[in-house]
Amino acid sequence: QVTLVESGGGLVLAGDSLRLSCAVSRLPFSISTYNMGWFRQAPGKERDFVGTILWSGSTTYYEDSVKGRFTISRDDAKNTVYLQMDSLKPEDTAVYYCAADQFATRSWSEYDYWGQGTQVTVSS
Fold it and tell me: What integer best gives the mean pLDDT of the chain?
């Protein structure tokens, strides 16, 4: 069974940094063939796109509000994807999810595999 496990969330102050990890196992094919996305969902809101790193590792896409603050990277040898979040703001507070799919990029509905999420709370 495919599993994606996010970790690294927590409670931080505005301006702080966090690095989320997503450990992936038992994908049908090598993780190196999957685009890996990060999404977030705040209470009472829809799940929103944060960013994606393509299977090649050389191309990333970000939602406008996180550009320049968040960075996605991947280490396929460790089957792990990272979301480095700097200059955090209270509006970044949400449950953060990682997702895997061989073709999807920005649309959460196109991703086949999901983690259970990790809470990030940014206090002012």
Answer: 97
Q: Which residues pair with 62 in a beta bridge?
A: 51
Burial readout 49-68 (b: 16 or more C-beta within 10 A, e: otherwise): bbbbbbbeeeebbbbeebee
Q: Looking at residue 68, what DSSP letter applies?
A: T
Q: How would residue 57 be classed by pLDDT, with cut points 50, 70 and 90?
A: confident
Contact 37, 51 (CB under 8 A): yes
Helix, strand, coil percent content, the chain, rounded in steps of 5:
10, 50, 40
pLDDT category at 84 given cuts 50, 70, 90 is very high
CA distance readout (Å), 124 to 12, 43, 80, 91, 112: 9, 18, 30, 10, 35
Task: Give the C-alpha separation, 53 to 74, whole Å.
Answer: 8
Average confidence (pLDDT) over 108-115? 96
